[in-house]
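Summary for the lay section of the report: proteins are chains of building blocks that fold into shapes. Here we show the chain for Condensin complex subunit 1 C-terminal domain-containing protein and then a coded description of the shape we predicted for it.
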Amino acid sequence: MDYDKMDVDAADEMGSPASGSGSFSAFVSELASLHRRSSSSSTASSSSPPLSLASLTFLSSSAAAPLSSFFQRIAAAGLPTSSLSAPLAASLSAHPLPAAVAYLRLLLAPASPLLSLFSPLPFLSLLLALRKASSAAAHDATNPNSGSGNKSRKRKYQQRPPTARVPSLLPEALSLLANAAGRVPLEEHPDARRSLVDTATELMAFDVLAAVLGSDYRAEAVPDVVRTLVPVVFSASKSAARAAAVEFLVRNVVPLGAEEGEDGVRKAVAYLPRCLAKKAPEKSEARALAVEAIVEVLRAMGPYEREGFATYVVAMARGKAKGRLLAVDLVLAMLPSLLPSEGDDCGLQEGSWGLKFVRLLVERCSDSVGGVRARALMNAAQVLDVLSERGMEVDQLQEVTRIGNMGLGELLRLRCTDDKAAVRKATLVLITKAIRLIGRPVDELLLSAMGAACSDPLVSIRKAALAAISEVFRNFPDERVTKEWLQAVPPLVIDSETSIQEECENLFLELILNRICQAANLKLEDHSIDMEDVFPEGTLDLLKSICDGEVVPCIKKICASLGRKKKLKPLLASSLQNIITISESLWLRSSRPIEKWTAPVGSWWLLSEVSSFAPKSVNWKFLSHHWKLLDNVGQDGRGKVCSKEEPNSALWAVDRVSLLQTISNVSTELPVEPAAELAHSLLTRIENFDMHLSELDAHVKSLKTLCKRKAKTAKEGESLIQKWVKQLVCKAVGILDDCIKETSEAGGRNFFTPLSGKVKGRKETSKSMSQAVIAIFTIGSLILACPTANVQSVIPLLHTIITSGNAEPRPKNLAGGAVSFKELAPSLYIQSWDTMAKICLVDDKLAKRYIPLFVQELERSDLATLRNNIMIAMADFYVRYTALVDCYMSKITKSLRDPCEVVRRQTFILLSKLLQRDYVKWRGVLFLRFLPSLVDESEKIRHLADFLFGNILKAKAPLLAYNSFIEAIYVLNNCLAHGAHSESQGRSDRGPALFAIRGTDERSRSKRMHIYVSLLKQMAPEHLLATSAKLCAEILAAACDGLLNVDDAAGSAVLQDALQILACKEMRIHPNICTDNSEMDEEGGGDGGTASALMAARGRAVTQVAKKNLIQLAVPIFIELKRLLESKNSPLTGCLMECLRVLLKDYKNEMEEILVADKQLQKELLYDMQKVDATSKAKAQAGAAKVAGPSRATPAHGSGKVDAAARATARSVLKEVNQNTPTPPLHSMSVPKVRSMLGTGSRRPAVLESVRRLQPFESDDEN
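The coded shape description reads as follows.
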């Protein structure tokens, strides 16, 4: 029923006093009739009939004049006042709102007999009526068309007349209730008082609550008001109701705690902030709103109350995790109000609340709970902002943030490597904001930690690390910081996250390129001599640092991306030219020979990278001048100065390569005649076959570009290129042919020539050999620059060299067939293989013939350089001829175990790139052969392997670690006992032995465990559970059935590894393993509620399944395996007992139920657990005693009871052992839970076979 819709037919009658008098007469008549009926009847007053709607309307709408004499006229009519109570109470159910208004008007009428008219039950009915009316009004506001329902349906084309909505009486009723709340006697009726407060809070009638607090019973009502307002204050959103509730607490409740107030009220108000803190929620958004409300309440309180609550916050910060989390938020919110508004000491004097709060926050940065640590670090960053605004000095900050012997830098370094993601992110944010206050010098370990965080698996942490280390570089651009920044940031340009790539490019542009641009307008002064004084500070160091070989590919990619986005300014090219020119001028000013001058390291290289995007900014006169200078010096010193005696020869060669690259980039802007002249000069230099190999590719590329610039049409340019390529190939073939003949003759003479006659011939051979090496390399460069070139005349010569020394028959007239170029000329031999690989890349028919030779040479060659080059060639072949090379993958992967570190690293990088580009699939033995790289002797390879398995593989093939885990155990131990694994390992000849880490020594076992742990970290909790079941079924049960020979060294190692894996902490499944992203440890907040609840439910489900599998699957196998190992007196018995102890230590109270089949094993495990607990407690007490002082009584006394219990258990165990009571076999035991699942009457092998076949996820009917 809609309580707002009433019939008001008598409204006009009540408008005049006359009509009011008449209505009063009707009302008196009705009341008298009801009174006579109730007097003559034996029923209770509660069953009295209600008043009519007309009477209620008269009472609820009467003016003040009639009500002023209402009770006198009732008495004059001979009716007692109590006769109103029963009809009004009944009317509250029949006509709620009119009756409520009428009842309240009567209570507020002058000379109203409150004691006889007020009763708790009618008052509660009145409050209930108001609640229902409010709900109905809210429902009508939400669904305006739902009130008519189906009864008011009209026919088609029948128009429904508009109905006027009757004004609601609810506002009037609430207004009357606010006036009556302070008058009604609620001191003796606590239920009615609480209901009144609850109703007022529910209806947001704060004027009613204010009236309650202004009444005589406010001392009893204050706790009720606070109790009802707390849920509104802690609502999850910033609603108007929440804001009104907080404002009510501040303006109406807090002032009641003034000194002149009542003692009980003052205590209740003073306790208000603590009440809010105790009931504050844990979720981040709701907690933030709670902190905001608490702070607003505190601001309205006096200093004494604020200090009392501050003491409570300090105590709360050392309590439970929930309180500590709230305390660090309260510290941040309260700190500004606790610091003085003026002064130079920032309010951090000894003993001040500001100092206490800052130190409390720093202490919580090392909290045991990850969420508290993360929140404390985040808040510390904002606190440092507040302190820095107040002018805090670096020395004072270091002193304030020092806790014991740990300073701020050491704290940040430890938190940068925290195991919780949210903590690492918060630490990086703190570094970003506090770097200016940390001061110089920046700790090297902290720098390394920030650099390592740039390769973190989580995107948010990589972003935070990028911002942190860039802020350090921005403030302290010294050599150490520059080096670390360049090693950490530029590699992020190939990150999988696009936003990180863009941020990396922008930071490189800001911090590197824009700084170099500052040298564009520099002018050389007359007195300048030193370059460091001329250029801006750090410019030359930046240029030198960007040439580091490890970051060069990344910087090239950054420059190319910035150039495509048109972010590279022409000013950068002008700046680099100015740097080179000023450097040359300063050198000549000091009267030093120009032959020994070198440009600042990195200037030519960077100019070659940016010139293609700003060709018009590069001056041709500048290029021509320096090309003549560099080319003339190179030709004059060739063979004399620059070969050995001059250390600048390599720098000149590098600069010439960069200069040629620059010329190629700006060739479209060069004049035709200078371009033709330069092309002729380059061709002449190439034809001499006497330049450094590193310059050849640049010369060929530049010559090709200049020929296209010189030609008028594209066809003419191609013809010109073919012409000089053919000319160079013919000359190179001639030189190579002569060298082969000379080497063959020299090799034949060496058997008969006396020792004294070798020197001259060796010098001549060396000269021709060097020229032949350059000729072969030139052919390789030409074939890549011009794939259509005819090199058929070269292939027989290369074949002769690469197959020299083989036992295969050769034609007698073939030169070089009888000598081994590998021994006589290894450099020629290596370059021949490289050139043959380049030719195969452009000739598929030749590739089919020679790829098997490349694979064969990769396996048997003893030259590390050749193996490395062939590995690079095989990677290129895999991209070009995937089907041809795929069958040789098992042989190619053997290079992962090459004795040379460079070859191993190169192989790992190349195969990883092929895997990322999907040319190679994670199938067969490939994954298993990558595993030993996790424990490689080289730290660089280990780092690459960790990144591959932790980042790339986890995203690309998340189930690979789980699917291959059991097989990895067999492969690493080189165990062929299991049929499936021996079949997969037997595909290659020496692969298993090469990739195995055999041995039971500590070093081998630790390496294998490191690999296992790395794989376990990639698994989800459900995969850990399945892996545990597979370990029991496929290894432990196999040992019980005899499929795995535990007497064999390899089989014993496999079993020991399985037991250690089951006992390791990474394998243990707890409920919180699924809730790492919950509120206490979440990265950024997000939609924490639903996701956190789902993850928690998932964790509980997995934990229950894990316990069930342990009891029904693992324990029976362990019992049988223990019997087997004891019968063989195997040393693995101790390992098995240790594994069982770790697995069952969380189920001490259920030990008797789990091990009901073997009481002896139960007692042994309890004894082991007690001994371990006693040892750990003794160590802990000894450590505490060492810190506290020299007293030794406490540790001995503390461990006495535990040792006594352990000795008692030991005596009982030894007593049974001395009785020669062996562990009974499984088939004779009574194991109810196992028997209920596996059936009765089965023998031991059948039991184990059925246990092995269990499917935990499919057969679990409880979840």
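Put simply, here is one thing we learned. The longest helix spans residues 1088-1127.
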